[in-house]
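Subject: design request, 611 residues
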């Protein structure tokens, strides 16, 4: 070993990290005929180790090089962690998933907690797949690690990969070589490429000494996030526990529906489009544990039922505003819901005319409004003014939306006296903002959202519940506290979850005695239009103010303002997609024609400037 360094440094300890590359090159010249790539790489890595590195460190290097060589980077593709992890055609994703396994293991080593790795491409076509990492709190991986994730995913060969890992571990103070142990929970949806990508993820985790991959099987994305969060809180976290928590909190909410309303309660039947994905199958299991709700699943993903996300699912229904496959004229008037491929999005709809392919859509904005009304009502029952001020429990309630929220929904929520704030598109932004409140409700119009309760507020609710149970059990105030606690149990605290969202919607509709129509007519959406523009480089568009203003290229925002001013109630913004190589244009106006024209005019400006 030392031969290679003689004449350079007499002691390996003195080889600075920065000179490793130089030594690599040199060694490659000395031994151009090593038998195999793996052996040569492993040998090289060991040969440049400072003596202070232990055998365990050496083993780690050999392991990374060895396993890295089994997952070569595909040619001509650049991977980017994007809004929701890496995504592309599933057949070329194994090197990326392998590397995501390494990142997840490092994240677990760094935090000393369990993390998650989910293999899914959500609402995208069946041939696509993707991978994302869940942090110990069950939320998305911290953004500060995204540049490292991007670099690792694109490392051209095992040596670069090794170097990146070693450098990052050093920068982040992550002890390697098995000093600490790590655990990564792995989940995947029903995509055909999921199984072989799972194997790549396992090998990625196993490439870090001390890290253990735990295969949790086929899951919805929110189930995996829930499991990670629960495991780190010391709560039982199997799928059975998940179903138990959902069904029990749902029963609790249903038991608290005022009895006098039972006779004229809302319809208890809901038909659910499972997008031929994992959500449909899970809902079939969950529904067996529920009482007071009749769930019928279509597009459940069973053999012969149809293709994942093709002509069905939440994304299709919300974007196209048409009847999904599997639904027909028999369904006219029935309350229906759509999940996306990995069941983290939920929208509702009612078939108006199957022959004309018309639906009445209730999107994420209206689901948010329903949740907000219910929670506000429970808080006001709880804080009803009487002589005893000590019984009040003031809560900071916040609503988080993105620029895609229909303007009519924002007006409606503000008129209710609620605090509404905006963030850029992507769950990681909305979730973070919502967690700043005692109760934060966030939703994207596409149906991804949840209700977050702060730990301290849950603690206050629990102590208030105990107090009221002994002083005024069964009082309206007591029931309101119990309802809020049940909501915090039912609705996923880690990430938007279509299954728990569906149960909460159904329980609230029963409580309010609302028909679908009543809910749908809370406010009328302003007509809107979305367009995409293919551009040479989407990163040339930089936005500010939660994506509502363009900062770069200069002059574009002025053009948007000029076009928008032509339309009463006009609103328009453009942003680079986080998942596709395009610029998205969104416009609203008082008529559909106005929205269409505004979107078209702005799209033309974008195309002219950047196309
Ligand atoms: C991803 C995001 C979703 C966002 C969408 C925007 C997560 C889990 N998912 O699907 O929240 O609305 O990207 O896509 O964060 P776009 O950037 O292509 O418009
Ligand atoms: Zn999804």
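Subject: RE: design request

Done. Sequence follows.
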């Amino acid at each position: 070993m030392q031969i290679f360094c003689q004449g350079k440094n007499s002691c390996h300890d003195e080889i600075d990290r920065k000179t490793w590359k130089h030594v690599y090159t040199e060694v490659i010249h000395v031994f151009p005929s090593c038998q195999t790539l793996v052996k040569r790489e492993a040998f090289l890595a060991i040969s440049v180790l400072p003596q202070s590195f232990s055998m365990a460190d050496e083993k780690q290097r050999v392991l990374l090089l060895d396993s890295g060589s089994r997952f070569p980077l595909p040619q001509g593709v650049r991977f980017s962690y994007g809004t929701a992890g890496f995504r592309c055609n599933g057949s070329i994703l194994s090197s990326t998933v392998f590397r995501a396994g390494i990142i997840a293991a490092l994240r677990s080593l760094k935090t000393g907690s369990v993390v998650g790795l989910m293999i899914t491409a959500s609402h995208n076509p069946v041939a696509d797949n993707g991978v994302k990492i869940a942090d110990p709190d069950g939320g998305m991986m911290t953004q500060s690690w995204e540049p490292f994730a991007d670099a690792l995913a694109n490392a051209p060969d095992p040596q670069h990969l090794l170097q990146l890992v070693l450098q990052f571990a050093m920068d982040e103070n992550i002890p390697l070589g098995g000093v600490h142990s790590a655990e990564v929970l792995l989940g995947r949806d029903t995509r055909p490429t999921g199984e072989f990508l799972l194997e790549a993820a396992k090998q990625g985790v196993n490439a870090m000494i001390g890290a253990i991959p735990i295969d949790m099987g086929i899951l919805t994305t929110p189930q995996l996030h829930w499991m990670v969060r629960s495991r780190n809180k010391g709560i039982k976290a199997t799928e059975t526990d998940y179903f138990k928590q959902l069904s029990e909190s749902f029963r609790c909410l249903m038991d608290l529906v005022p009895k006098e309303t039972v006779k004229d309660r809302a319809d208890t039947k809901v038909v659910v489009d499972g997008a031929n994905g994992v959500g449909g199958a899970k809902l079939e299991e969950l529904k067996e544990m529920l009482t007071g709700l009749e769930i019928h699943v279509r597009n459940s993903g069973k053999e012969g039922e149809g293709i994942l996300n093709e002509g069905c699912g939440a994304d299709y229904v919300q974007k196209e505003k048409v009847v999904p496959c599997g639904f027909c004229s028999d369904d006219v008037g029935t309350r229906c819901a759509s999940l996306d491929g990995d069941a983290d999005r939920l929208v509702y709809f009612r078939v108006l005319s199957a022959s004309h392919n018309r639906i009445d859509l209730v999107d994420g904005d209206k689901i948010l409004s329903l949740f907000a009304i219910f929670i506000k009502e429970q808080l006001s029952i709880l804080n009803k003014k009487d002589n005893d001020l000590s019984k009040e429990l003031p809560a900071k309630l916040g609503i988080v939306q993105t620029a895609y929220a229909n303007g009519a929904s924002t007006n409606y929520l503000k008129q209710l006296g609620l605090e509404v704030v905006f963030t850029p598109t992507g769950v990681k932004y909305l979730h973070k903002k919502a967690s700043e409140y005692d109760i934060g409700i966030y939703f994207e119009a596409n149906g991804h959202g949840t209700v977050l309760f702060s730990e301290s507020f849950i603690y206050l609710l629990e102590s208030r519940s105990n107090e009221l149970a002994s002083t005024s059990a069964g009082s309206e105030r007591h029931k309101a506290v119990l309802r809020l606690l049940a909501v915090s149990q039912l609705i996923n605290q880690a990430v938007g979850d279509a299954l728990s969202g569906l149960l909460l919607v159904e329980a609230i509709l029963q409580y309010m005695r609302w028909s679908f129509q009543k809910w749908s007519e809370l406010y009328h959406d302003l007509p809107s239009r979305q367009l995409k523009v293919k551009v040479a480089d989407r990163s040339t568009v930089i936005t500010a103010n939660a994506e509502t203003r363009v900062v770069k290229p200069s002059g574009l925002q002025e053009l948007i303002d000029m076009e928008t001013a032509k339309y009463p109630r006009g609103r328009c913004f453009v942003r680079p997609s986080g998942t596709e190589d395009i610029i998205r244009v969104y416009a609203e106006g008082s008529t559909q024609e106005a929205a269409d024209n505004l979107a078209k005019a702005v799209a033309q400006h974008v195309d002219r400037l950047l196309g």
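Residues 122-123, 221, 340, 342, 344-345 surround zinc ion (ligand 2) (CB under 6 Å).
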